[in-house]
Write a structure and sequence with these properties.
The protein is of the alpha/beta class. It has two domains: 188 residues, Rossmann fold; 148 residues, NAD(P)-binding Rossmann-like Domain (Rossmann fold, 3-Layer(aba) Sandwich). The protein is 42% helix and 17% strand. The protein is built from 14 helices and twelve strands. The protein has a seven-stranded mixed β-sheet with strand order 9-8-7-6-10-11-12, sandwiched between helices. A five-stranded mixed β-sheet has the order 1-2-4-3-5. α9 links the parallel β10 and β11. α13 crosses α14.
Length: 436
Amino acid sequence: MRENLKQHDLVSGQAQTLSFATGHEGPWQTYLAQVDRVVPYLGPLARWAETLRRPKRALIVDVPIEMDDGSVRHFEGFRVQHNLSRGPGKGGVRYHPDVTLEEVMALSAWMTVKNAAVGLPYGGAKGGIRVDPAQLSRKELERMTRRYTSEIGIIIGPQQDIPAPDVNTNPQIMAWMMDTYSMNIGGTATGVVTGKPVQLGGSLGRVKATGRGVFVTGREAARRIGLKLEGARVAVQGFGNVGGVAAELFAAAGAKVVAVQDHTGGIYKADGLDVARLSAHVQARHGVAGYADAEVLQGEEFWGVDCEILIPAALEGQLTQARARGLKARMVLEGANGPTLPGADDVLNERGILVVPDVICNAGGVTVSYFEWVQDFSSFFWSEDEINARLDKILGGAFVAIWETADRLKVPLRTAAFVVACERVLEARAERGLYP
């Protein structure tokens, strides 16, 4: 089991041999395979490619807390900084019972690529705690968050590494992290995290930013393949801040959200689900299960739904070769990080199904996090309209650069995104040189 592997085995590059206990490729393997595919296009910069295959720093921390009943429990936490050549680390923190060092390594590496692909002045980082937060009280959750923040405080900071929300974390978690770090340094440091409440230096537009980015890049991709959004059928896996917001924006543009799947089940309605009504149901019931005005999808049926646009916006490794072979879509918009396995990428490419990769498709969140970081430093805050306009401009420009690279090299968008990003990262590495 990968949980039993030693930290130095992972960091030394031997993680290339890791896989999930289920036999599926692990996320770090997926990332390494993506790097291997881009190296032939890097020219002289390929000399530095090994930099991309090794995290700069990986920290494993023990997070002991006193529970409400007086007992003491220990949780395992992680913070990985994959690459800092272009700026401080940037990436979220997730609370999930399946979090492992391997997963956090892969997520931090994808953040390196994502930040560079969009042109943000950040490196890549990621963090997490192996825990089911639903089993903790609010006070226990606060104590765990504050202890974790103190433990990783030696490597985070506004100019070092800036955490943000991810799976099962939210503005409240970020507020506790910011407060803990600030208390430990003896002064308020709003820029140590992003995704905070607005009254604590958070940015307007941040909650919906990732889902909005999925819509913006999807709209640009649809325009280039001649797909009209009005009447287009959309299937969404995951219905939180990413999938739910993307569904809302596509529906507002005239598309029909025909299928939704989350951890509670799947639903389908041929003439389109009422997204607003479904959102209210999910808020009340914490999942799509039990939604009355739709058919129930069983097992793998979600992956065979007739649609033009598929949005996997849950966890990584969801789109396998088998699912890719049965997919009935013209375009895949990766709202999640690493949802498509390399073998599935090949199948989709052979079938002519366009994949807009995660490193550009879901970059709306980190882009608005960048806006928040900038606003915190200047203590000058922008309106939501200004933020959305800047977001559209940055993501639109990044998408065009990646599309043009794909067209020039005759490669899929994912490879093109990695070419653009890895060139930027390795140019910075080469220019900075090695010390000592």
